[in-house]
Amino acid sequence: MVPRRFCTVSEDLRLALSLSRADAEVRWYKDGERLRDAPHILVEERGAECSLTILGLERADAGEYLCDVSRDSFSFYVAVGDPPVTIVGNTGTPEQHLLMTGDDLVLTCELSRPNFKVRWLRNGEELVSAGRVKILARGVHRQLTIQNVRPGDSGTYTCDAGTDQMHTSVYVEAPRVVEFVTELQNITVLEGETASFKCMVSPDDVDLRWELNGSPVYSDKRFSTTSTGMCHSLTLRSCRLSDSGKVTANAEGLLSRAKLRVQGKCSRTPLCALEPHYVSILPIVQPTLTPGCSIYCICPHRGAGSVYTRASGHGGRRRTGPGAAGSSNQGSGGNPLGEAGGRHPAQPQIHPTGLRLHPLAHHPQAPGVGPRPLLL
Q1: Nearest to 51 by CA among 64, 37, 61, 62
Q2: 158 vs 126: CA distance, rounded Å
Q3: What GO cellular component term, any one, is given (predicted)?
């Protein structure tokens, strides 16, 4: 039986024999053609040992080799093939890829030599180039692309190069959906009061940041933030006028905004601290009353003393000063404001909001009518 030798391209081949005596003539043949020394062929004889060496095998070097020694011979059959393909940089440990829905998956590998077809598999099933799946081969580089991946594309991907394989684990997650269940609401407070902004955000592990007028808010003596599940709150203590503006809740890029309005406290002077002023009332002014309004008037009368009358738009309420005995008095000393039979009904003067008061010395007086003092 002829021995067989399997070699690969670029490999060196050495065939050696031991002879019965050292002085025998040795001849080497390949497929019946005698071989002689050449740059890549070496024929050696050392005593009873003889050998044939072929450097850098090529496919054409495949065939039957014969060693002829006088009346004896020995044959070898040599097969020359391509060397096994390996994946450059393959560690044997599966790589991990985490993608979001809608991303593109791109897997690449480099082979030890070109002109070799690899297979791409997912969970053991071979993939073909169609639709979202693209398979490319350029020189020693191989590439698998899956466009717009979905959760169903998760699995173990394999680049099969026959004698070498590379595995990659791929996980595709659904996109994270963040939404405000309850938005922020506008708030108005007085200076020095506390303002609290609240919102609810889903899911409950959202990273929420607070801003006031575009600047980040951090917890301190005046500002405090809390997060409990989906509930988030921002509290501003001792609000200042400068705090007025826009409050923003930033939930991983999703925004909710509200306005904070801080009003100053009114500083009013007590009435008792005002300087007394006097008002002159001109006669014969006919008022028009509407429901809910109030008018104040001072009018002349023929009795003793002055009369101060307060009339209401709801009708019927009035007060009289000295010299008037009320609505029941009759006769010359009676109340000129009587509802019936009064000879000189009061002519009230309406004092609307924003009445301009004048000191007595500068206020004009109607002829024959002296001013009646009214302390405001």
Answers
A1: 37
A2: 9
A3: cytoplasm
The CA-based diameter of the chain, rounded to the nearest angstrom, is 178
In this structure, the dihedral spanned by the alpha carbons of residues 364, 367, 373 and 376, taken in order and rounded to 10 degrees, is: -40
Q: How far apart are the C-alpha atoms of 152 and 130, rounded to whole Å?
A: 17
pLDDT on residue 196:
96
Query: How are beta strands 231-236 and 245-251 bridged, if at all?
Result: unpaired
C-alpha–C-alpha distance, residues 239 and 190, integer Å: 8
Tell me: the pLDDT tens digits for 217-246? 988 889 999 999 999 999 999 999 999 999
Taking the alpha carbons at both ends of the chain, their separation in whole angstroms is 138
pLDDT at 182: 96
* CB half-sphere exposure, 17, CA atoms < 13 A: 23
Using CA atoms, how far apart are residues 179 and 304, in angstroms rounded to an integer? 80
Output the pLDDT for position 175: 83
Q: What angle do CA 202, 203, 207 make, to 5 degrees?
A: 95
Residues 17-47 pLDDT 10s:
888 888 888 899 999 999 888 888 999 888 8
- For residue 190, the model assigns a pLDDT of 95
- What is each CA distance from 73 to 62, 184, 332, in whole angstroms? 19, 100, 171
Q: How far apart are CA 358 and CA 350, in angstroms?
A: 16
CA distance 35 to 65: 9
In one letter, which amino acid is 325? Answer: A
> pTM for the whole thing?
0.42
Question: If you average pLDDT over residues 171-195, what whole number do you get?
Answer: 94
Q: Where are the beta strands (DSSP E) in 252-344?
A: 254-263, 294-299, 307-312
Q: How far apart are CA 204 and CA 6, in angstroms?
A: 66
Q: CB atoms < 10 A from the CB of 215, how many?
A: 10
C-alpha 8/C-alpha 57 separation (Å) is 7
User: Which residue from 316, 375, 324, 372 is spatially nearest to 349, judged by alpha carbons?
Assistant: 372
- Residue 110 DSSP label: E
Domains of the chain: 4-81 (2.60.40.10), 95-173 (2.60.40.10), 179-263 (2.60.40.10), 276-376 (no CATH)
Q: Are strands 245-251 and 208-212 parallel, antiparallel or unpaired?
A: antiparallel
Q: What does DSSP say about strands 95-100 and 165-173: parallel, antiparallel, or unpaired?
A: parallel
